[in-house]
Amino acid sequence: MKTNFSRRTWMKYLSAGMGGLLLTEQQATAMSVQQPPAPFNNNLAMIAPRDNIKITKLEIIPVHTCRTIFVKMHTDAGIVGIGEGTVEGRIPTTVTAIQELEKYLIGKDPRQPAHHWQAMYRHAFYRGGIILTSALSAIDIAMWDIKGKALGVPVYELLGGPTRDRIRVYGQAGSPEGAKEVMAEGYQSMKVSVTSSRGRLSRYVENPDFVQGVVENVKAIRDTIGPKVDMGIELHGDHQPQTSMILIKALEPFQPWFYEEPIQFQNLPLMAEMSKKTHIPFATGERMVTKWQFRELLTLGAASLLQPDITHCGGITELKAIATLAEAFYAGMLPHAKEGIVGAVASMHVAASIPNLVAHELPSLQAAPKDKVERSYLGKSYIKKPLVMDDGHIIVKKNFGGPGLGIELDDNLVENERGVPEWEFPEMWDNYDGSVLDH
Prior knowledge:
Distance between the termini: 89 Å
Radius of gyration: 26 Å
């Protein structure tokens, strides 16, 4: 069928079409202004998605009872984000490093943590040191907390949403009696330290008596907890490679969950060589920082379980990147969280959003005094609503399902910390000649 169009008719249709197109674009633009970016919770959001917000100051709170530093990031919108970064035993040094970042941060929009991470890391010229990345960790966590509060959603929603509804956590023991206590607390898994034996620390090359002492202790713990409880072995980099390898082979009959820090991480090629001589997985990474160091670990095959600490490695931004890198190498995540509860919860937000989580550590209280304030590794005296453990797990929405990190600092935190001396790492010496040993 043939249709005839005059010039006037053609122009009429063309004008109508252009008008409709312009109207559609205007409507789409209006909708883009009205519709907030997902995820967004209008009922809990503290500001509108496109409201301006700027960082006004940092408040730094040393928390010596946890060997760490909490940070409050203040904004002109009234939203306060909390973060944590630390180098245990080097609190004043890390405080100074955090203070040095304040000049860059003032006046910036905290809802751009990935952009600010790049600027603070790359513009520093000297990169990757534990002090700099620990300071960066505190800032990064606080910015993610603000972003979540501004949008009214948990941080894990901003990381792609939850991949699980609970986080498996494990306890720590050094003896059969300690293992009983861990089980009584509700844990279903644990790690066991084998730093010493027969009342002394490890030497360069060990004798059968030392090795047998370790074996007897681990056997007693395995007999106490039974075969269904996962039991990792914490070597803590305290043994020289040759002694560590002897212990690894001697403990294989108890089928450990993993061997943690079989040697110091500076020698990753040797760790990779050792890992090929046992069927038990190696775990390491608590002293390592940034995706670049973990790339080397994974490329060499030094460990198949990664233990980055969010308060050291570069914060939420970097922990998520490390987890993604690990997934590409079929490696599991076993995040370290020995210090404060703020970092532990921030780390669990990442853990809730990744596919390759194995389990998560909880903060210890080895630096906490026993006489002034009642504290707990689940956050009592540090946050207003301490975490609750259910059958060896932390249920995500029950414990930190609110906006941002989903936790608030205890109002008495500063007063509770008053007068507490800074914690220091214990010195380790050889019993025989007084020489320095690894820690």
